[in-house]
Specification:
By secondary structure, this protein is mainly alpha-helical. The chain contains 2 helices and no strands. The N and C termini lie close together (10 Å).
């Protein structure tokens, strides 16, 4: 049953990943506006930004995405377990 649960859960996990990316992106934009009121978040290929500023932006973006993705993954797994009685990750 565990293998079947993993297969059935896969589309739920994929949708959750997309949603996590959208939500995390929106949160990051709001956080970055607090960090640097003057500019959008720097991209690694924009030469006008310093290394520290670019690395800070990348670190914040990665941390926010990881936290949001973990929360959405766990919520999706719990919902799947409630609906089917099977945990999708074991």
């Amino acid at each position: 049953m565990a293998n079947l649960a993993k297969i059935v859960y896969r589309p739920v996990g994929l949708v959750g990943g997309v949603v996590a990316g959208i939500v995390a992106g929106a949160i990051f934009k709001r956080v970055w506006k607090i960090v640097d009121r003057e500019h959008d978040a720097p991209d690694a290929l924009q030469a006008e930004y310093s290394w520290p500023k670019m690395l800070l932006a990348a670190t914040l973006q990665g941390a926010i995405f990881a936290a949001v993705k973990a929360a959405i993954d766990r919520g999706g797994a719990k919902g799947f377990e409630r609906a089917t009685g099977e945990w999708p990750g074991s």
